[in-house]
C-alpha cells in the first residue's frame, strides 16, 4: 500500500527546493490528488529496481540509462540466457517529472548534468557569460525525462544520406521498421497507415488539450500555401499538430516505456546513482569491463563476457572514450592518458539544432498559456483526475511546421527550417523559469520582456534543421567527474546565419495571415540589446538577433560519428562498433553522421532498436566475425527472425 502523504510530501520538497515553486500554493493538493488517482503509477514498487549489489560479471554492460540505454536493456534482457547490467549516473524519476507543463522547471535541477558551453563571440550573446546551457538528463530515462516529448522522426532523405555516406543498412527503408517496432500510435486515423503501428512500448499520442491557437496555426499554414499532413508519414513539408511521447497526458519517458514493464526480469540489473569512470580494455584492444563508482564513493570493477555498450549520449560517451584511452592522441597526452586507440574523430563533429528565441507576438484574447492563469487548483484537479487540461501542455508547444527557405530546394521535400509554434513565449511565466532555463541575463530579459510579462502571446521559434557549423568537445582534465569543455561553434558557418534569417522572416509572415490577425497578432518589436545600432527588420539586424538569443533545442549529436573505414573522422562503423577495438559499441545520438531534420529523441530510440538487433544477430551467429557477402552487408547483418530460435525469450 502506498503512503500517499509521504509520497506527496517527498515530491513537494523536491518541487519547492529544486524549482522554486513554493509560491504555488496548489502544489500540495495537486500532488496528493495526483498520487491518489494514479497510485499505480507512483508506487515506488513500479519503478526500475536499483540493485543493492552488482555482480562481478555480466554478458552485456550498458553504460547510460537514457533513451538509448533503456531500449537496449529491454531488448537484450529479453533473452533469458543473457545477463544485462544497465548503469545510470542519476536516480529515479518523481511525480513532478511526469507533468508536461513543468519540463522547464527540471532544467538545472538534480535531474540535469548542468553542462554549459564555453564562452562564444558568435552566438549565445544574451546568455550569462555568453554560454549556452546544455541540459542533459542525469536520471533513469535520461533526457527523455527532461525533454518536451515531441515525436518527430526526421526526413527520409536524412537516412538515405547516411547510407550514401557509406553507412550500409541505414537508409530510410532500413530504419523505418525500427521506428515502427517501438511505436504504440494512439491516433486511430494515423494507426491505420503503413507509416505507423500500434503495440510497441512507446506510446505516441495527440495532445489532450490545445488552445485555439493550435488550430489557428494550421489555418495560417494553409493560407501560406502549405498542406496539413502527418509529418512522420510520406512527406514532411507542411504543418501539423505535434504528437507527443505521453500516455494519458503524462510524460512517458523511455524508462517508463521500456524499463518499467520489464523491471522484474531476473537477468536485468539496473544500478542507479552509479557512474562509470573508465572502460577497461586489454592488450588485444578488447573491452572487457568497466570501473565504476556507486553512491557513497564505493568503487568496483565489473566484467563483460560479451560486450560493453556505451549509451551515455553526445557528451558523456566521447568523454568516457577519451578517459579510457580512445581518442585523439595529442589531446589524451595533454592529460596524461595513455592512448590505446588513436581515433581523432572522438569529440569532433558536434552538431545541435538551434532556434531563434524570443519571437513573441501579442494577441488581444486571454487564450494563451500564461502560467499565472492556467496553473491553479482547478487545473491541478483536472490533470490528476482526468489527465487533461493545461497541465498536459508541453510548455505551449502545439503546432509544428516544416518549410524550405530560398537556400533549399522546394521541390525535394527536404525542409531546412522547423517552426515550433507555441501558445506561449519567453515572457509567459513572468520571467521566472524560461529565463533561467535559457540562461538569459537579467539585463537582457528585463529590457526586452519586462513590459509584456504575463501578457497573452504566441511564439514562433524557427529552428535550423541541418546546420553546417561543427563544434568539438575536449577533456577538461583526466578526472571523470569534471565536465568536459564544450565548443559548439554555433553560427560559425555563414550559411547557418542566412537560413535562420530567412526562418525569422517566414515566422513574421505567419503572424500576418488572417488566421492569426483575427486574434490581433502583432510582433513585439522591442529591439534587443546588442543590435540597437542596426535598423530594425533589416537583414543585418536579424543576423545580429540570431547571435543574441541563440536557443539550443538540446539535440546534441555526432560526437562519435558513424562512417566507413575510409572516413578518417569516423569513430564507429555501421554496426556501431568502435574502430580499433572489439567488444565495444556506441549506441546513442553521438553516432549520427549528420543530424536528422527534426527533434531527435525518436531517432535515438530507433538507433537503439536497430543496434539491439545488430547485437542479437551477431551473437546468435556464434560471434564468428563479420565478412562481406554478395549483398555488400556484413555476415552479421541479417533480418530473419529464425536466428532467435535457439534462445529463450522472457
Automatic annotation (TrEMBL):
TM regions (residue ranges): none
Pfam families found in the cross-reference section: GMC_oxred_C (PF05199), GMC_oxred_N (PF00732)
Single Gene Ontology MF annotation: flavin adenine dinucleotide binding
Keyword Ligase: no
Keyword Methyltransferase on entry: no
Gene3D superfamilies per UniProt: FAD/NAD(P)-binding domain, Glucose Oxidase, domain 3
Keywords of this entry: FAD, Flavoprotein
Sequence ranges assigned to domain Glucose-methanol-choline oxidoreductase N-terminal in this UniProt record: 137-160, 313-327
CC cofactor: FAD
Binding site for FAD: 139, 276
Family membership: Belongs to the GMC oxidoreductase family.
Name this protein carries in UniProt: Glucose-methanol-choline oxidoreductase N-terminal domain-containing protein
Lineage: Eukaryota, Metazoa, Ecdysozoa, Arthropoda, Hexapoda
Amino acid at each position: 500500500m502506498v503512503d500517499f502523504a509521504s509520497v506527496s510530501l517527498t515530491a513537494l520538497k523536491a518541487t519547492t527546493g529544486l524549482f522554486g515553486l513554493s509560491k504555488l500554493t496548489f502544489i500540495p493538493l495537486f500532488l496528493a490528488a495526483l498520487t491518489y488517482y494514479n497510485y499505480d503509477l507512483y508506487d515506488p514498487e513500479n519503478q526500475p529496481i536499483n540493485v543493492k549489489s552488482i555482480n562481478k560479471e555480466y554478458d552485456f554492460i550498458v553504460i547510460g540509462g537514457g533513451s538509448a540505454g533503456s531500449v537496449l536493456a529491454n531488448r537484450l534482457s529479453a533473452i533469458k540466457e543473457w545477463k544485462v547490467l544497465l548503469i545510470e549516473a542519476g536516480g529515479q524519476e518523481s511525480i513532478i517529472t511526469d507533468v508536461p507543463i513543468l519540463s522547464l522547471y527540471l532544467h538545472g535541477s538534480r535531474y540535469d548534468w548542468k553542462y554549459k558551453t564555453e564562452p562564444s563571440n558568435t552566438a549565445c550573446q544574451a546568455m550569462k557569460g555568453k554560454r549556452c546551457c546544455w541540459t542533459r538528463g542525469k536520471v533513469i530515462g535520461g533526457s527523455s525525462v527532461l525533454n518536451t516529448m515531441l515525436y518527430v522522426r526526421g526526413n527520409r532523405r536524412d537516412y538515405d544520406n547516411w547510407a550514401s555516406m557509406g553507412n550500409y543498412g541505414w537508409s530510410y527503408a532500413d530504419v523505418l521498421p525500427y521506428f515502427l517496432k517501438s511505436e504504440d500510435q494512439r491516433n486511430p486515423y494515423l494507426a491505420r497507415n503503413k507509416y505507423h503501428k500500434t503495440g510497441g512500448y512507446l506510446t505516441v499520442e495527440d495532445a489532450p488539450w490545445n488552445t485555439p491557437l493550435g488550430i489557428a496555426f494550421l489555418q495560417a499554414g494553409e493560407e501560406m500555401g502549405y498542406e496539413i499532413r502527418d509529418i512522420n508519414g510520406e512527406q514532411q513539408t507542411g504543418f501539423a499538430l505535434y504528437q507527443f511521447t505521453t500516455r494519458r497526458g503524462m510524460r512517458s519517458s523511455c524508462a517508463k516505456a521500456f524499463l518499467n514493464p520489464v523491471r522484474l526480469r531476473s537477468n536485468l540489473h539496473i544500478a542507479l546513482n552509479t557512474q562509470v569512470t573508465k572502460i577497461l580494455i586489454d592488450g588485444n584492444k578488447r573491452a572487457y569491463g568497466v570501473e565504476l563508482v556507486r553512491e557513497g564513493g564505493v568503487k568496483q570493477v565489473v566484467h563483460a563476457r560479451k560486450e560493453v555498450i556505451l549509451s551515455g549520449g553526445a557528451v558523456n560517451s566521447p568523454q568516457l572514450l577519451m578517459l579510457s584511452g580512445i581518442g585523439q592522441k595529442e589531446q589524451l597526452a595533454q592529460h596524461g592518458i595513455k592512448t590505446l586507440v588513436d581515433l581523432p574523430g572522438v569529440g569532433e563533429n558536434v552538431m545541435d539544432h538551434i532556434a531563434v528565441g524570443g519571437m513573441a507576438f501579442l494577441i488581444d484574447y486571454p487564450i494563451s498559456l500564461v502560467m499565472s492563469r492556467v496553473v491553479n487548483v482547478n487545473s491541478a484537479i483536472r490533470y490528476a483526475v482526468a489527465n487533461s487540461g493545461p497541465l498536459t501542455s508541453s510548455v505551449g508547444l502545439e503546432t509544428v511546421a516544416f518549410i524550405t527557405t530560398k537556400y533549399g530546394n522546394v521541390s525535394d521535400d527536404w525542409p531546412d527550417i522547423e517552426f515550433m509554434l507555441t501558445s506561449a513565449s519567453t515572457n509567459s511565466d513572468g520571467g521566472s523559469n524560461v529565463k533561467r532555463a535559457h540562461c538569459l541575463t537579467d539585463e537582457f530579459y528585463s529590457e526586452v520582456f519586462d513590459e509584456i510579462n504575463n501578457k497573452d502571446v504566441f511564439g514562433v521559434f524557427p529552428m535550423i534543421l541541418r546546420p553546417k557549423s561543427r563544434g568539438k568537445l575536449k577533456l577538461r582534465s583526466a578526472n571523470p567527474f569534471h565536465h568536459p569543455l564544450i565548443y559548439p561553434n554555433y553560427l560559425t558557418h555563414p550559411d547557418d546565419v542566412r537560413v535562420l534569417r530567412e526562418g525569422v522572416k517566414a515566422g513574421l509572415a505567419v503572424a500576418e495571415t488572417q488566421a492569426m490577425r483575427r486574434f490581433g497578432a502583432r510582433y513585439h518589436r522591442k529591439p534587443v540589446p546588442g543590435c540597437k545600432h542596426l535598423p530594425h527588420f533589416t537583414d543585418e539586424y536579424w543576423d545580429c538577433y540570431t547571435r543574441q538569443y541563440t536557443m539550443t533545442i538540446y539535440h546534441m549529436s555526432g560526437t562519435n560519428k558513424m562512417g566507413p573505414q575510409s572516413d578518417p573522422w569516423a569513430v564507429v562503423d555501421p554496426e556501431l562498433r568502435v574502430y580499433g577495438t572489439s567488444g565495444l559499441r556506441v549506441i546513442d545520438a553521438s553516432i549520427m553522421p549528420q543530424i536528422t531534420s527534426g527533434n531527435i529523441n525518436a531517432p535515438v530510440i530507433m538507433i537503439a532498436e536497430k543496434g539491439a538487433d545488430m547485437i542479437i544477430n551477431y551473437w546468435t551467429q556464434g560471434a564468428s566475425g563479420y565478412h562481406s557477402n554478395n549483398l555488400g552487408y556484413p555476415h552479421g547483418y541479417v533480418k530473419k527472425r529464425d536466428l532467435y530460435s535457439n534462445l529463450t525469450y522472457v
